[in-house]
Amino acid sequence: MSRTAPHRADAVLLLGSAGCALTVLDTNVVGVVLPTIARDLSASFADIEWVVSAYVLCFAALLLPAGTLADRIGRRRLFLIGLSLFALTSVACGIAGTAMALYLSRAGQGAAAAFMLAPALSLIGHAHQTAPSRARAWAIWGAIMGLTMVLAPLIGGAIATWFGWRWAFHINLPLCLLLAGLAWIFVPESRDPVSRRIDVPGVLLFAGSMLSWTWALIRGPVEGWGSAAVLPWLLAGTVLGAGFIVVEQRRAQPMLDLRLFRAPALVGAVLAMFAYAACVQVMASLLPLLLQNARGDSVLQAGVHMLPFALAMLLLPFLGRRLGTRWASGRILALGLGVAVIGNLGIAVALWQHSSAGLLLAMAVLGSGGGLLNGETQKAIMSVIPPDRAGMASGISTTARFSGILIGFATLGAVLSSHVRDAARGALTEAGQVWTPALIERVVVGELSVQGAASDGLTRLARHAYAEGAAYAFVTAAVIALVAMLLTNTLMARRCSQG
Q: What is the pLDDT of residue 26?
């Protein structure tokens, strides 16, 4: 290796990490500004859910094929394409005049993010091939991702307060141009000489199934779960999911090798990853909604109050790594999920008791559970699958993570909106207030400023109703985490007893 090679490898590490951080930053910044977007665009709660879900859906569906495509056409080339598309779709998001235009642009942004993240991870792995170099690289990458998660709510709050929510998207344009210019200069091209074909049927069936389930979960609270507008989507999601399993079992080079799931330990590790994403990671979008709509925080205040959650997510992985020297992965995963159960239940209790201190404390507990799970879930999956299938292991891990975020956000959003509607109708009726479906929808999206003499009292009622209804979403998250904890502990324990 030449003298300059280590410097070039570090440049690849920093630029690849910056590209990954940009996707994390965008996701978390948007979570903070969602209530502002809802008010400015007169969006329904379903529209707001699609702003998050459209992005995550395309991200999750294209992440695996993006890795294959990067190996075929060149990792640097696809990284540059992803940066260009991310810049263009970010501008489209920033100029969107309607909720539909915004979430369609967000779908394109999610696809672009997949084309950035997959080659970025491959570039880092290719540039750091020795064990010590790779360990150092992924440690730095993880620190950058953690720091980004901590800073994102603050950055989002500052941008929305001083420049407006549209700049949460516009800021991506100069950042992408800068990264693209540096990548063109410092990142060498690389590709896999023996690359696999893209599994087009697998991609379409997986994306179709996720889209159908997400559509049903978002429309269910509005249309009714047994309505003709929802039942066909539930059926389609089930049929397409079954079709995906059948197709993947028959393909010589599947997008997802289902034979690997014959190992109970892998099933337990993937289940833990899915539950972590669905019950903890998804809170990067749900908690800012809660802080602004139930507590009345400004966008900047919500960003500051996210710090207990974000800092715990950043710091607890260090404890997880120390525990990993003494405990088996299954035990650490069960502990992390158990802490997530306590954190979610603590948030629900704090909401019912209207305790601000209790809410922030419970958020820190929830973030602690997430911090324990964050690194350990990835490690557990990678350790179960043979080293020669490392690419497939990484794909399974990332797909489980983003599928968990997608389904978790849609499920918890459905529970939240249903119970907030019930709580708002009950509170307004008990207070002798005349309500309409349009007024109830304003409560659900957090549009709490009401003109007239009774506005202050109505605002307090709406905030209490939001807190009352939102608590059930966190109870649901706690139940999901509890079931996952029990199953993960059982499935991962089998490996220990056999090994």
A: 83
